[in-house]
Amino acid sequence: MKIVVLGGGESGCGAAYLAKKRGLEVFLSDKSAIKDNYKQFLLENEIEFEEGYHTEEKILSADWIVKSPGIPKKAEIIYKIQEKGIRISSEIEFASEFTDAKIIAITGSNGKTTTTSLVYYILKKDELNVGLGGNIGYSFAKQVADENYEYYVLEVSSFQLDDIQNFRPYISLLLNLSQDHLDQYNYNYEEYALAKFRITENQENDNFFIYNKDDEMSKSILEKLEIKAKMIPFSTKEQLSEGGFIEEDQIVVQLKDKFSMKIEELSLLGTHNIANSLAASIAGKILDVNNESIRNSLMTFQAVEHRLELVTEINEVKYINDSKATNVNATYYALESMKTPTIWIVGGLDKGNDYTEIEDLVKRKVKAIVCLGIDNHKIINFFKEKKEFIYDTSSMKEAVKISKSLATKGDTVLLSPCCASFDLFKSYEDRGGQFKEQVLKD
């Protein structure tokens, strides 16, 4: 069987490595330049590759193509592959065919990275033989090639789910839905939501689907789909006979037995993180992690970098890095959790954002808006009649300098951009890193 991998990043190199290790003929092609570390990896493992262009003849002679989630569905080469009827899979689909491990797959518009990291932390602390991968950490495929894990916790994006055929997690978890990446889904929210729901399409009745009972779009989709997996809900708004919920000042999971702990003991702050903690606890209970172990994990888990990350406190002003908030709904959760007057740094590459969702929160919680991007006119036009203080900046240095000058004792400076980072930065990590660097400068 001839495997062609499109994309020479973490997932692509991992998939090529797994194919090579399993004795399959493999060729990797990347239309852009491949980073030096990945190029070295390919050379060391004697994997044939090309960069800077696609040799169509080689690609279209494949039996199976593994596609990087970063390659747009509308790319010309994808059309040509589809015309020839060649199977196209994501790395998670490809790698899952070479392992019998139980997979816990987590998706949603917001909170994926935090919840994936939390589930992994719960299982790891309970000494399960578990790996972490997907949209986070090291390549899932490379781990399948080299490790012998009994469980994998995977963060899964809609782009990865677009390219599955047989992917069947033991536990699938859909945290929430909000309008995101609509440019890749014909500006159709339901089309995007259905892509997320593909996480459960191959599950059978011996599998589990954890879902958010409070999420309006999820409710709408569930009325149309037939889910075979055992469905377990969580809610922060109502008490449930089975699943996860809030009871007075506690989170509760009612499954095989009852697990509960005080909300104030959770290490993660904010209503959205209560929901994330409930979802993660349900996954732990399904996998027979004992209550004391779950409680200990929820008390000691540290938030992931770039997601409501407290950078420092200077002159009684808190600086919070939420660079991973690349859509409006993610910023909604960030603003909702603010307890002090907030200087809000926002902007970047707009993905069709509708700011009405956060309008009320901005009115109530935001002291000043500092726009950070090449083109900030949409944000400025939306908020100019609603906020007196709005500043237009085009560098992190300038944005942080202005924010520091505006902040007084007891305030919070929050980087929560609502937008993608690619206008001024290499990635959201680069954006968050530059924010931290500028904040910590004298």
TrEMBL record:
Domain of life of the source: Bacteria
Record's protein name: UDP-N-acetylmuramoylalanine--D-glutamate ligase
Keyword annotations: ATP-binding, Cell cycle, Cell division, Cell shape, Cell wall biogenesis/degradation, Cytoplasm, Ligase, Nucleotide-binding, Peptidoglycan synthesis
EC number annotated for this UniProt entry: 6.3.2.9
Binding sites annotated in the UniProt record for ATP: 108-114
HAMAP family per record: MurD
InterPro entries in UniProt: Mur-like_cat_sf, Mur_ligase_C, Mur_ligase_C_dom_sf, Mur_ligase_cen, MurD
Domain Mur ligase central residues, every copy: 106-283
Pathway: Cell wall biogenesis; peptidoglycan biosynthesis
GO molecular function, one term: UDP-N-acetylmuramoylalanine-D-glutamate ligase activity
Pfam families: Mur_ligase_C (PF02875), Mur_ligase_M (PF08245), MurD_N (PF21377)
Catalyzed chemical reaction(s): UDP-N-acetyl-alpha-D-muramoyl-L-alanine + D-glutamate + ATP = UDP-N-acetyl-alpha-D-muramoyl-L-alanyl-D-glutamate + ADP + phosphate + H(+)
Summary of the function given for this chain in its UniProt record: Cell wall formation. Catalyzes the addition of glutamate to the nucleotide precursor UDP-N-acetylmuramoyl-L-alanine (UMA).
GO biological process, one term: regulation of cell shape
Gene3D superfamilies tied to this protein: Mur ligase, C-terminal domain (3.90.190.20), Mur-like, catalytic domain (3.40.1190.10), NAD(P)-binding Rossmann-like Domain (3.40.50.720)
Annotated ranges, domain Mur ligase C-terminal: 306-418
Cellular component, GO annotation: cytoplasm
Intracellular or extracellular location(s): Cytoplasm
Record-stated family: Belongs to the MurCDEF family.
UniProt key word Cytoplasm: yes
EC category name: ligase
Record carries keyword Cell division: yes
